[in-house]
């Protein structure tokens, strides 16, 4: 309750990830019997996700799993996906890079880094009620649509399963939170998104490799920008605690109004829609132009510009009036130099 990343007014259980895993474990076998989805592959996918999910759940229950241990667990999950599901990034649709990825160890190494990075990225944006849940539903919706277009039953059925599971969780997480995803839930969602994107690109040459980056560009760029802030701007280790993510600044400087528990809860809920809209700058074009590298590249550039502009404007207390949504002044909020934010 005392950490700078805590934005709720009463204790909330962090075991939402267990509910998601149970939903997947129940749904996949039933879908294999009645829906015809590939049972073996779907169960292998759950097996691959187990290290990342398990390390997160143990951290949620004990608070004794280090950041390094969780990162290594995510990398192990990615490695299992590479060998058990043949989920390997063999191309990025860049002429100078693709020939290098023909070397199997290099391709596997890139896959492990990319999957582990996106797994952690979803955990980073899991800061407010409904934020990571709804963004993930939007991403899975796009993945399911593209999988349908290319006829990939495993990816489509998994995406639909995750939409249903997260949707059930979201009812209890937004606008008021009775339960949190926790690290287990965030890692499970992040790994599943990453693995499905790798499988889409690896299995279907018509799916542009840039699609995988653009559809998940909000959590990915949030992570990269956080690394830039910590290492380049502040000269701190990449893994140093940090509590000034974009969603935190929006909470403190745009929807900041009132401090009693009920008002704080409403402010918490009002924060997430800003990021839902921001994430759709990447998700919508990626869903429509998943086969067009030019449009995807332009979309990525537009998102980066929009993100940096918004972040800079908020930090400098120059937030546009239309973003505030009322006549209330934007109240300056001190940003702590030292934090205990673990994400």
From TrEMBL:
Q: Where is this protein found?
A: Cell membrane
Q: What is the lineage of its organism?
A: Bacteria, Pseudomonadati, Pseudomonadota, Betaproteobacteria, Burkholderiales
Question: What's in the keyword line of the UniProt record?
Answer: Cell membrane, Magnesium, Membrane, Metal-binding, Transferase, Transmembrane, Transmembrane helix
The UniProt transmembrane annotation reads: 12-36, 71-88, 100-121, 128-147, 153-172, 184-203, 209-228, 273-290, 296-317
Chief location: membrane
A GO cellular component annotation here is: plasma membrane
Give binding positions for Mg(2+): 123, 183
What membrane topology is given? Answer: Multi-pass membrane protein
This protein is called Glycosyltransferase family 4 protein
Give the GO terms filed under biological process for this record.
cell wall macromolecule biosynthetic process; cell wall organization; lipopolysaccharide biosynthetic process
**Example GO molecular function:** metal ion binding
* Cofactor(s) the record lists: Mg(2+)
């Amino acid at each position: 309750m005392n950490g700078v990343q805590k934005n709720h007014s009463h204790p909330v259980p962090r075991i939402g990830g267990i509910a998601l895993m149970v939903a997947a474990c129940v749904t996949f076998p039933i879908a294999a019997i009645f829906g015809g989805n590939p049972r073996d592959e779907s169960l292998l996918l759950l097996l691959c996700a187990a290290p990342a999910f398990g390390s997160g759940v143990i951290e949620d229950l004990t608070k004794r799993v280090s950041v390094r241990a969780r990162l290594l667990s995510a990398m192990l999950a990615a490695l299992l996906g590479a060998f058990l599901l043949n989920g390997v990034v063999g191309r990025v649709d860049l002429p100078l890079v693709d020939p290098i990825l023909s070397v199997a160890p290099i391709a596997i190494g890139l896959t492990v880094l990319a999957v582990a990075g996106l797994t952690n990225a979803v955990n980073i944006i899991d800061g407010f009620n409904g934020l990571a849940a709804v963004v993930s539903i939007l991403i899975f919706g796009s993945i399911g649509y593209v999988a349908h277009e290319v006829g990939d039953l495993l990816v489509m059925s998994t995406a639909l399963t995750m939409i249903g599971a997260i949707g059930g969780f979201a009812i209890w997480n937004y606008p008021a939170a009775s339960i949190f995803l926790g690290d287990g839930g965030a890692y499970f969602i992040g790994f599943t998104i990453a693995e499905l994107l790798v499988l889409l690109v690896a299995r279907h040459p018509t799916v542009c490799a840039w699609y995988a980056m653009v559809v998940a560009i909000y959590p990915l760029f949030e992570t990269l920008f956080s690394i830039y802030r910590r290492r380049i701007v502040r000269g701190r280790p990449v893994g140093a605690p940090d509590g000034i993510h974009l969603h935190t600044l929006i909470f403190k400087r745009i929807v900041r109004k009132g401090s009693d528990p009920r008002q704080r809860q409403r402010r918490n809920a009002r924060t997430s829609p800003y990021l839902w809209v921001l994430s759709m700058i990447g998700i919508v074009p990626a869903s429509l132009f998943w086969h067009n590298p030019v449009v995807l590249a332009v979309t990525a550039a537009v998102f980066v510009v929009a993100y940096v502009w918004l972040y800079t404007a908020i930090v400098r207390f120059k937030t546009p009036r239309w973003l505030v949504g009322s006549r209330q002044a934007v109240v300056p909020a001190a940003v702590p130099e030292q934090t205990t934010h673990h994400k």
